Batch of 2 targets.
Target 1
Amino acid sequence: MKNKKMILVLVLFISICLIGIFFFKNIFIKPTGGDYRNIRDLDSSYHAEAEIEEALAKIKNSQEKATVIMGRNNGQRQIALTFDGLTDRTSVQQILDLLKKYNMKATFFVDGMQTAEDPQTVVNIKKAGHKIENYSFSGINKMETLPMERVVKDFSRAQKIIKVITDQGPNLLKCNDTKYTDQLLQAAKACGFNSVVKTDVFLNVKQMNSLVAADTFVDKLKPGSIVSVKLKSNAEPITNEPGKTDLQPAIDKQPGLKELLQEADLREKETIEAVEKLLIALSKANYTAVYVEDFAADDRIQKSAKTALLDSSFLVKAASYLQEQSTSLFTLPTAFAADIADNHIKEIKIISTIEPAIPYTFGGLTNEIVVNDVLGRLHDLGIKATFFVAEVEMKKYPETLRRIIENGHEIGIAIRPKDGETFEETRKSIMSARKILHEQFGVDTNLIKQPWGAVSDLTKEATSSLECKLIGQSVNVVQSKHKDYTSADQVMAEIFGKSMFSLGRGQIVHFRMDYYTNDRLIGDLVETIKQRKVDNIAYVTSYDNPASNPDNNSQYTIKPVGEILNHDNFIYQYPVDSGNVPTRIRNHWHGLKIDQHNFLVETSKRYIGNRTVTYEDRMLGFSKMDIRRLDKSGFIHTKDKVIFLTFDDWGTDAAINKILYVLRKHNVPGTFFILTNNVLNNPNLLRTIAMQGHDIGGHSDKHKPMVINDPKTGKLTQTQGKEEYTKELSTSYQKLQDVIGDVTINGKPALTGFFRPPQLAISKMGVEALFETGYEYIINGSCSTNDYKAENVPQLIRTIEDGVYTKEGEVKKGAILVMHMSDTAAYTAAALDILLTANEAKADSDPSKFKVGRLSDYLVDGYSQINRKIAELK
């Protein structure tokens, strides 16, 4: 009996302790991230003055040094995999997908500068479950040569930025191409790093060119190695010589844009392919990947990121269990937005719209001179914008806010949730700001923006619960490294680079007015971006200009966010609701049944060739006898005086909008064969093409031709295996379906079963894959205009006319013109405009007058390219 009482008392005591821990756990557990999420000025997250001062003081008072982590063989087949620096978000996501596919852990050493400029990429890494550590501020090499103060400043700034973004400070530091001297280790320790990391083996991407090479690489690995992949090359440290000032960079001849883009794409592609080969080889060799911190000499590093008192203890687990049980017992079920699919709660960075409009947004009211300058510029340009204002700014600068409202601009609310803030607290702060706006300024808004820092799920939930919209940005004009820039040209070169020729429909551009040293710089950027990245989208010629022709509707406008969001006729859901996609599209045209017995017969019906594609050139796997049965003309069989305008690849709004305007102006249809690799960066443009009544066909995802001429052997060879090619085709088609799968033209789907092979090259394997994937027609064409090589408009017009007319001046019936929608095809729109204008002026009886047809009206069920009589009956 006494034992039972003792047990009962003990259970009661433990229960009380657990309840205490449950309610007072914050007393025992120190949250990571400290007060860093309370930072309201991104500039402070770069300078980190307090942290720098504290670190320098530690160096004076202590000789403690960080330890060095190197590979360590613990008797198991393990390696630690690291990725050093950051590359573009798409490439990082592909790496994350590969790590998930092969079930490998990794440690990402991220530099502070890139983290601040693209925090979402770092958030994605964290969400994927990988470790995030410090790669210094900009990943420079030879850091041992720098002064102590410079090193401390570099480490501290990077550390603070990563804490802001991830709410957790890294414990490890990595400096490639740097010697870890005692001085450097002392600086690292003072800046909060327990250890620095030294790589054993770097992956040579170019040498990892096959699975055999990957196997060889892994065979030479020692268990316990630290294997690193450089995603960003180390920069040389900048040092100023005494008595000299920094010089302006020399203007040098640069390679063309095409070469630069190809080089960048190739580098990223090589890296991703090398990583996959490495992971395959590691899996085959039964290696597992662990975090770098697992190779530490002791467990202090791991413990430093956790609680010192209750880490992994029975009490914490019991408290967690008690919390779950008590919550389920005493809390009524509540459906917050987070309980719905995550993609229903998202930050809007691109408004899903086909309206030719771009929103400008602004934040930061502290500098009245800049605000007044911006308002004046917007007024002169006739622009209305959206200004996001924090509650503290409403109270501190009411007159400034009233001026903004009086100028006709839209107002949204800027919020910055504090560290550890709950759903209800964030919700109340939004409600409080909305109340002030309504009562004191007569403004109601449902637009919310978190100006910087990673947007948490709680923030999304709170915003959604109030039926508000969380607004982000596609282009963040102000970046920390630009603070002291003096001209718009300097900023433009780094924000847009050489590949972003224009902005796109619905892409949100954000300006911060309280940052630059030069008070006129934001105003200059407002004007310059409009001039170079918005106005250049319009079709402007000496004979047709939006300024003088009211029917020229090719110009994009700049509008407030809310105004664009409220235009329901232009807004669409992306990805489209699969329930609204016709069954034929969802099933990817799988009504077509082709096997080895009828393959050649069906191919001859469905292949519209090109006279330059022959047995010797870009055609593989077919016998000479087979090829005799395939079309070489590239013409649609018809008695109509009709031609077909087709456009390949992909481009920016600056190129494609001009083509769309010309087609709209002359009321003619086109077929756009879409290269989908980058199409999801601008889905609005693809949606616009379809909604304006044009056919959409496929042109692959990565533009890999089915067959190439091997320069070494001089023989034709395939670029991909059938499985790989089929996957590419499916990926490409799915991207198109997600954007335009629900669009119909006169009752027919805009997304067709048409495919144009890259470089017009075909192989038997590729054609089989096309049919198996669900494509119905392979369309090359009768005239390759080579418009991307054209030197001027007259030259291109002559080329097109050669494709349209016979020597006698009559229409080549059924001619298919192969053109391009890329930014390199600079004269295509103007040449077509002149040609179509001249054609319209001709009498209907003129034998040279043509009409422009829609391919989907001619390539109907039963059409046969090999049997002209059957085709012409259709």
Note: The mean pLDDT is 84.
Target 2
Amino acid sequence: MFLNKIEYFTVKDIMSREFDFIDENATINEAILAMSKINAGDIFIKGEGGIPKGIVTLNDVVNIIRDDSCENIKEKFLLKNISDIPKDLIVIDMAESAIKARNIMKERSIGRLPVINEGKMVGVVRTIDILNKVYSKIDETKEAYEFVFDNLHEAVCVVDKEGIISLWGGRAEKLYGVSKEEAVGKKLKELFPKALLLDVLKTGKAAENAIHSPRENTYINISAMPLIVKEKLIGAVSTDRDISEVMNLSMELELTKEKLDYLQTEVSRMNEDKFSFGNILGKSLIMKNTVDIAAQVAATTSSVLISGESGTGKEVFARAIHQASGRSGPFVAINCSAIPDNLFESEMFGYEGGAFTGALSKGKVGKVELANKGTIFLDEIGDMPLYMQAKLLRVLQERQVSRVGGEKAVDVDIRVISATHRNLKDMVRTGAFREDLYYRLNVVNLKLPSLNERSEDIPMFVKYFMEDFCSENHINLPNIRPEVYQKLMGYEWPGNIRELKNTVEHLVVFSKNGEVTMESLPPHLLSRVKSIVKSESYDLQERVKSIEIETIHKAMELSGGNKLKAAKVLNIPRSTLYYKIKFYDLVEYM
């Protein structure tokens, strides 16, 4: 491992303080006895000022014994003086590096090196001491490092240049569920094939604040850097911080923010459009019956399928049902005909970060999850792809939704209101719509009448749309000629209320001198009106009704809207005028 390096230490770190001196006149036998007392293989010859002048080693003794010039061993031990042993002595300062001591001993082929400090011998560096002391220091250092690393908030991992784990902090054990025994000595790639440290080893470039998720609902912030010594890559180190709590809280806040933004938009729309049964326009009998049915079903959790022609106000009814239901969650509308097939699932159910190309890194909440505790409105449900019909049915059955790319299912409590202008029964017969989904959505069927079926409500809509448009655009409210009302009520309105609203705006824009006349009508509607005029009705009651309505309009215009004056012009009691205004539902005069 890269930690096992002598250059990290000084001579003081590795020297031994076990040494002794002997007089230069001592014999070999006395030197051996002195060595045995300190259990050493050497003894230093005392010099002046605390600096040794020589050294006697066991190797020297062995060499003397092997010398044939002496007649017997006894003479060699008793008579041989240590001063007769020539020995060059090299010393080193205590503050020098351990590597320098090792190099001197290697170059001079010596096994001992006296250590000097302030002119005195304070220790000795022996070959065996270098090994023992270095490994001892490394063990102490590693223990200190490991204690620090185990108590850091970050998980620390160190690998050598081969990618083998040499240090695995205690926090890493808790974070990844891998013990030191399982990690140290193993290749990082075997445990974590996509570890950021592997990229750092490969590129030699540091990485900071990278976020990844090793396990579900676990998020890690990693910083990693290469370890370079003398311009050589010797390994890499990473610090990993568990930010799961922060990320999960962030996602909860993001979801809350999305819901809040959506609710603010919805509240703004509801305040603007005043979605409630009390504000649904229409006094016709068919409309009153439809509102009564919708109000009755609103208090339940039953699924509602709203059918009707385009422009009959299906979303208006859906919002009114939601508002009357008392559900605490939001009203979330999805136009099934406006979503591309490849985005349907992610739009409906949401997705996890990085689930597909182009996905937001933080992921996105789906419309179904957003509608929790509230109502989801599936407009133009007949345009939903078959594969999504199956997925939607599963969500409605299990009351759970899973995001794209995610494994965790989220419980949802939603009320489903769907709408279509298609004949879903025919689609079921042809296989274009799932039968099981149809019956789940069609618990209550609410059919909205076309505007052609409730023509008596047209004056009320005209007045409402005109006032709204004039107020928004700061335009004075113009008067409408009676014949215009008559012609509007005679039109078939294939676009229903939506078309009527656009037509009213056209009438206001092209009014002249504060009055809407026949010339203000859109060309396509005017041509249709002309064809209607050609086919005159000879029904006496209808002719009388038409004449009375037109005469009342003219009288009201002449009197400036004063009913008492108008009644005098018409030569009828004022009470009769009130009755006829109510009878003919002339809302502009009520």
Note: The chain is about 45% helix and 15% strand.
